Amino acid sequence: MDDRTIGRAAFLGVVGAGVAGLFFARDAVGLVGKAVPDRVASLVPSSGWRIYTIGSSMPRIRPAEYRLSIVGQVETPVTLTLADLRALPRAEQVSDFHCVTGWSVYNVSWGGVRLADVLDQAKPLAGWRSLRFISDEVPYDDSLTAEQALLDDVMLAIDMDGKPLSRPHGAPARVVMPQMYGYKSVKWVTRIEVRPDVLPGYWEQHGYDADAWIGRSNGFSA
Ligand SMILES: Nc1nc2c(c(=O)[nH]1)N[C@H]1C(S)=C(S)[C@@H](COP(=O)(O)O)O[C@H]1N2
Ligand SMILES: [Mo]
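That is the input. Now the predicted structure with molybdenum atom docked in place:
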């Protein structure tokens, strides 16, 4: 198995049963590392995560080559390097992560930067309504309204559980929006559009709610 086989469709289809079984094996007896070939083991991370991609392979972005553009309704469009991001005020938090398909990971340690500090670099013009996060994994994207993006537990994460974000989890940088289902937390973010409107994201065009509040969206009620 290689990267081409781990898209969401493959996950849910051909390899779904096998991968699900491996999670149980790990949970039960801690043997996953030995039970699967190396390249598969790297896709079976610790503590209940499922790795999702929509494409045929995960983006591979070298840290030194990473660029994040902030464009749209701004005074100064900018392109930041990973070093630029690391030089911004550091934010840290521990938060839970929930996928709308039913799995959760609790107490994830994230490190990164708040979106307000990222936006300061480009100076949004008055009246902007949303941030659209565009993934290097085309055509994955999703948006947060200004109010949502500036909540105090939303960040652009560059570290997870004390280490630089891993490639499967969206390296070098991903959105973390703990109060909403995981599809809002775009991985491999390379472009942020500051917009006067709110566009439906990838999964929202496939029927999920744009306001993806945990427990009160997508058919769930509090
Ligand atoms: N680029 C990209 N980002 C993405 C996705 C994806 O398929 N591609 N899946 C989303 C969904 S549905 C979830 S639940 C989380 C899963 O995060 P993980 O792959 O780090 O476990 O990523 C979100 N961000
Ligand atoms: Mo998800």
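The CA atoms of residues 180 and 213 lie 4 Å apart.
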